Amino acid sequence: MVRIRELEPDLRGSALIRHGGFGWPLLALGNCIIDLRQIWENRRRLGATFTLALPLAALYELTLFVGGLGGVLRRPPPRWS
Q1: Where in the chain are the domains?
Q2: Is 22 within 8 Å of 72 (Cβ atoms)?
Q3: Mind listing the pLDDT tens digit for each residue in 28-78?
Q4: What is the full DSSP assignment across 6-74?
């Protein structure tokens, strides 16, 4: 997410990352809010409760945040064999 936005200036949020360097936490927070809103809107259609979906959503958002942090610190992706 972070590296693509560094390379592609047309993507939403890329100015936050290129110019400020640390705008990616704001971008991650915005994506988290969007994801939680989508979970809330689709809970009845899927027959799920919002509180049961929160731990899974938190794990997903934490993974994205750590990946963004690794992208900013220029860490190589993990090697899966």
Answers
A1: 2-72
A2: yes
A3: 788 889 988 988 888 888 787 888 888 988 998 888 888 777 776 776 766
A4: HH-TTSTTHHIIIIIS--HHHHHHHHHHHHHHHHHHHHHHHT--HHHHHHHHHHHHHHHHHHHHHHHTT
Region label for 13, one of left (φ > 0), alpha (ψ between -120 and 50) or beta (otherwise): left
Q: Compute, in degrees rounded to 10, the torsion defined by CA atoms 15, 20, 22, 25.
A: -40
Instruction: Please tell me the pTM assigned to this model.
Output: 0.59
Hey, what are 1's tokens? 């997410």
**Measured CA distances, 33 to 18, 21, 23, 48 (Å):** 22, 21, 16, 19
